[in-house]
Amino acid sequence: MSNAITPSRRAALGAFVTLAALALFCVAWEWRLAPLRPGGSALVLKALPLMIALPGVLRRRIYTLQWASMLVLLYLAEGIVRGMTDPAPGNRLGWVEVALALGFFACALAYVAPFKRAARRRKREAA
Q: Rounded to an integer, what distance in angstroms lies between the CA atom of residue 100 and that of residue 53?
C-alpha cells in the first residue's frame, strides 16, 4: 500500500485564481462598480483578509487553505444576502461573489482532501 499523497495541481491553481479574483472583485465592487456610498466606501477593506491568505494559498500551505476556506464562507453569506436584497447592479454583483466564493471553497477542499484522508489513515494505522 502506498502512502504517497497526490494533490491536484489544478485544484491548487483554481484555489489561488478564484481567491485572487474574489479579492480583486471585492475591491472593484466597493470602490467603483456599486459602492455603498458614491466615490467608494470603507468596505473595500473587506478584501484585506483575502489578500493576506493569497501568499499561503499560492505556496499550497494546507493550514492556510483550511482557514481561508472557512473565511470565504463569510463572503458567500454576504453575497447571498446582497444578491437577494441589494438593488441592481449590486444584486448581480452579490451572485458573482457567491460564485467566486463557492469556486474557491470547492478548489480548496479538493486540494486538502487527500491530505486529510492520509492523516486519518495514518492515525488508524497507528492505533
A: 15
Assess contact for 6 and 115: CB atoms under 8 A: no
d(CA 109, CA 8): 11
Q: How many other C-beta atoms lie within 10 A of the C-beta of residue 64?
A: 20
Q: What is the pLDDT of residues 80-127, one digit of tens each?
A: 999 999 998 999 999 999 999 999 999 999 999 998 888 888 888 887
What's the DSSP call for residue 87? P
The three grid cell numbers given for residue 127, joined into one nine-digit string: 492505533
Environment class of 59 (CB within 10 Å of its CB; exposed 0-12, middle 13-18, buried 19+): exposed
Domain residue ranges of the chain, discontinuous segments joined by +: 9-126
Of 30, 32, 29, give the one whose Cα is nearest residue 41.
30
Q: How many residues does the chain have?
A: 127
- pTM here is 0.89
> Could you give the 3-state DSSP secondary structure of residue 37?
coil
Predicted pLDDT at 4: 63
